[in-house]
Amino acid sequence: MKPIEIMKDVYWVGALDYNIRNFHGYSYTTHHGTTYNAYLIISERVALVDSVMGLFTEEMLSRISEVVDPTKIDYMISNHTEMDHSGATPEILKMVPDAKLVCTSKAVNELEKHYDDGWDIQTVKTGDEIDLGGKTLRFYEAPMLHWPESMFTYYVEKQLLLPNDAFGQHYATEQRFADEVDQNVLWREAEKYYANILWPLSRMVQKKIEEVVELGLPIKMIAPSHGLIWRKDPLQIVTRYLEWAKGERFQDKVIITWDTMWQSTTKLARAMAEGVQSEGLKPELRLIPHSDRYDIMADLLEARGVLIGSSTMHNNVLPNVASVLSDIELLKPVGKKCAAFGSYGWGGGAVKKIQESMEKGKMDIVMDPFTVKWVPNEEELEQAFTFGKEFARKVK
Ligand code: FEO
Q1: pLDDT tens-digit readout, 142-157
Q2: CATH number of the domain at 4-246, out of 4.10.910.10, 3.20.20.100, 1.25.40.10, 3.60.15.10?
Q3: Rounded to whole angstroms, how far apart are CA atoms 277 and 271?
């Protein structure tokens, strides 16, 4: 397997996982697979920045071996403990027992608890440097981007930022650079990554990025631990993260997402979509059982607002809607404008449950819920149209 030299004496030696479709134990769908990016830095001393998922150890070692004997590695840098970036680390440290494992102090216990290996560990904090022999690696702690022990590695002379999970995308291709691939897929995967991993941490994302921007570090390239490397205009992804973190980036669209038992809620959704459209916003309809819940969260990231609907069953929402509501509560789309709608037979309950989840997700409920008993008649469909129109006016 071939390494790829991403800049002089810096090699991508990671692994391509074309087949994975569910990441983190079915908590994230990866329609385009993923990559585990590890970077080999050659100087008088040799550093490997992050490793790969354990299953891909041989692939990584074969790429490293094309550049250097793996036993020549002096530093194993661990930016993040999670196993997709540390799974092959024990094998490296078994091959090179004298190599130093470099990580933050918070990572020590986590790495030991994962692998229990009694390694020679050097802890670093923000501003600490390692001299590779005229070449310098500097470290920046990045707590909650996205674990407490996360850090960024910065290769000073090359102006190369290695931020691990930050700025990544789950996208496996033979290309290594963001400017070489389908831009729609690239940005969609970056958006989905932010929405499903970093959205609840937005306040910390904003703070950390502003801190790094204030440092005025020159950055020529950003090489994350998943997906493509940002080579042309690398700060575009940093700017995009700041916009997402602040909730300041919108497309003129409203997401309408729901499930239905006997089509009454679907009729409401369609009437509301026409109302939204009449105000010049684009309604995007997502019938939940026909959609991917993690894609729905990505859809929400840049939407001006969202309408969530359900029929009532057992005084609650339908089970598919409950899964989306649990994502709303977990990922916290703070400030996203929203409203609930639905239908019921004998007793209500669905819209109340939807509103409770919206509140837990710290969303901005801009209208009282719209609900009908049994099947909506012509007058109620007209009211649903007006509801959609009013909602669009409030979120424009
Ligand atoms: Fe937090 Fe890519 O692992």
Answers
A1: 998 889 999 999 999 9
A2: 3.60.15.10
A3: 10
